[in-house]
Amino acid sequence: MKSLETLFVLALIMALAISATSDSETNSMRGTSRFLGRVAMTSCEKYPKICHMKGSGGPDCCNNKCVNFSTDRFNCGRCGKKCSFGKMCCDGKCVNPRTNEKHCGKCGNKCDARGSCVYGMCSYA
Ligand SMILES: *[C@@H]1O[C@H](CO)[C@@H](O)[C@H](O)[C@H]1NC(C)=O
After folding, report:
1. For the segment 35-76, what is each residue's pLDDT rounded down to a tens digit?
2. Residues sharing a CB contact under 8 Å with residue 118, sequence separation 6 or more, in sequence order
3. Where are the domains of the chain?
4. pTM greater than the 0.90 cutoff
5. Probe ligand 1: pick from 49, 66, 70, max atoms within 8 Å of CB?
6. How far apart, in whole angstroms, are the C-alpha atoms of residue 55 and residue 98?
7. How far apart are CA 77 and CA 70, in angstroms?
């Protein structure tokens, strides 16, 4: 009788120990994926390919960050090329969307031959 009780207690302890281990295992797994996420965010200098992964900030690596040179106004066309105030980055070029006939108001908004860009709108007057 006594040994059966001991066995039961032992089994209980083992069950607790197992659940405790699996708990800490899930925690460390979560920690690992968080760690991997951080690596993906910050080491494109080492691994430029990560910028081509879905959900990255863009295909280009600049100051260890994934950016899109074609639209990033702080890295327009190349790393570190900042567009001045009021300009935006379209196709890797800083443009003034209030007057640019190819990017009037927004990137890719072209005014046709008769129109001109006035305050960011194509005017045909
Ligand atoms: C970069 O931005 C342009 C304009 O929004 C977009 O067409 C292009 O798909 C982007 N590149 C990538 C790889 O996200």
Report:
1. 545 444 558 999 999 999 999 999 999 999 999 999 999 999
2. 98, 99
3. 85-125
4. no
5. 70
6. 31
7. 6
Cβ of 70 below 6 Å from ligand 1: yes
- Token pair recorded at residue 12: 């209980």
Exposed, middle or buried: residue 66 (CB in 10 Å: 0-12, 13-18, 19+)? buried
Instruction: Count the Cβ atoms, other than its own, within 10 Å of residue 105.
Output: 16
Q: What is the 3-state secondary structure (H, E, C) of 38-76?
A: HHHHHCCCCCHHHHHCCCCCCCEEECCEEECCCCCCCCC
| Cβ contact 93:73 at 8 Å | no
Q: How far is the CA of 105 from the centre of ligand 1 (A)?
A: 18
